[in-house]
Amino acid sequence: MSKYVFGVDIGGTTVKLGFFTVEGELLDKWEIPTRKDEGGRFILPDVAASVEAKMAEKNVDKADVAGVGIGVPGPVKDDGTVLRCVNLGWGVFNVEEEVEKLLGLPAKVGNDANMASLGEMWQGGGKGFSSIVMVTLGTGVGGGIIVNGKMLYGTNGAGGEIGHICVNDDETEVCGCGKKGCLEQYTSATGITRMA
């Protein structure tokens, strides 16, 4: 019977990883840099190497790991295909299949803010509530919305993606998504740094 799971939050600057019991108890957490060069092609191999290193450190066999949950900063379809992750340099490809191939473990991939919302509802600040809204701030800006216990995914998994709502029609600089005046250009860590 599986005893452990890994949680991975792939951000535009760092990848945060956690090693948990299947009941949700955090056993260890750590970070690695997000290597976005060459279209982000090193990100998933780096994640796989880090997970495998932690398994070796903790003396954990793959048979004891139920799987890996991964949050990425962008819309994700039900089959694990990301549609575009501008902060990582990724276009359309199936992250879930790639992670399963690299690690030989089951994987589930979702939008990072949606995954964070589910985690908060299960073990965090949203525990005991049937509906929550979560806003994530970092390299980008995202959001996750759960109503009556159900995630609102919206079209192509972008239901809570608030970072690319236009808030300034007069903006002259282009956002990473290609539009101008996005909320993310002003309220993300990179946006605040840009304006400082």
Describe this entry's structure for a reader.
The chain is an alpha+beta fold and 196 residues long. The protein has 2 domains: 4-110, ATPase, nucleotide binding domain (Nucleotidyltransferase, domain 5, 2-Layer Sandwich), CATH 3.30.420.40; 118-195, Nucleotidyltransferase, domain 5 (2-Layer Sandwich), CATH 3.30.420. Helices cover 26% and strands 28% of the residues. The chain has 6 helices and 10 strands; from the N terminus they run E-E-E-H-H-E-E-E-H-E-H-E-E-E-H-H. It has a 5-stranded mixed beta sheet with strand order 3-2-1-4-7. Strands 8-9-10 form a 3-stranded antiparallel beta sheet, covered by helices on one side. Helix 2 (43-57) runs parallel beside helix 3. The chain is globular. The termini are far apart. The mean pLDDT is 94.
What is the spatial order of strands in the main beta sheet?
A: 3-2-1-4-7
CATH-assigned fold name of the largest domain? Nucleotidyltransferase, domain 5
Counting structural domains, the number is: 2
| Topology, number of strands | 10
**How do the helices and strands follow one another from N- to C-terminus?**
EEEHHEEEHEHEEEHH
- Cα(first) to Cα(last) distance is 52 Å
Q: Which architecture of the largest domain does the CATH hierarchy give at level 2?
A: 2-Layer Sandwich
Sheet with the most strands?
A: 5 strands, mixed
Short description:
This protein is α+β, with helices and mostly antiparallel strands. It has helices at residues 37-40, 43-57, 95-103, 112-123, 184-187, 189-195; strands at residues 4-10, 14-21, 26-33, 65-72, 81-82, 93-94, 107-111, 132-137, 141-147, 150-151. The relative contact order is 0.13.
